[in-house]
């Protein structure tokens, strides 16, 4: 049996967060690192739903129409903060 980890869970693991909610409390430097992690993921590796979940959870931004748009918006938002 294969269990797929959600994008948000993967990002929390990459950032060594004990809890998923810790992703929302990252420092500016950690957000830059998270943006780098996200940039290394192919948009097509995750479905649009997962990209939009991450975008909404981490930035409170509205859903996008494509995975590429959601990923780009997520990276931009993390690099601003």
How big is the Rg?
12 Å
Count of helical regions:
4
Share of β-strand residues: under 5%
Query: What's the helix-strand series?
Result: HHHH
User: Which class best fits the helix and strand makeup?
Assistant: mainly alpha
Outline:
globular
Distance between the termini: 39 Å
Q: Tell me the total number of β-strands.
A: 0
Instruction: Report on the biggest sheet.
Output: none
Please bin the fraction of helical residues. 55-70%
When the domains are counted, the total is 1
**Low-confidence spans:** none
If you average the pLDDT, what whole number results? 94
Summarize the structure.
The chain is mainly α. The protein has helices spanning about 5-15, 30-40, 50-60, 65-80.
Key features of this structure:
81 residues, mainly alpha
Task: Describe the structure in your own words.
With 81 residues, the protein is mostly helical. It has one domain. Helices cover 57% and strands 0% of the residues. The protein is built from four helices and no strands. It has helices at 7-14, 28-39, 48-59, 67-80. Helix 2 (28-39) packs antiparallel against helix 4 (67-80) and helix 3 packs parallel to helix 4 (67-80). The longest helix is centred in the last third of the chain and has 14 residues, at 67-80. The protein is globular and about 30 Å long.
């Amino acid at each position: 049996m294969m269990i797929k980890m959600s994008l948000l869970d993967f990002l929390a693991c990459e950032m060594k967060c004990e809890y998923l909610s810790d992703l929302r409390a990252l420092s500016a430097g950690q957000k830059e690192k998270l943006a780098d992690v996200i940039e290394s993921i192919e948009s097509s590796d995750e479905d649009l739903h997962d990209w939009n979940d991450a975008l909404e959870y981490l930035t409170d931004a509205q859903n996008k129409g494509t995975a590429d748009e959601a990923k780009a918006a997520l990276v931009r938002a993390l690099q601003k903060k």
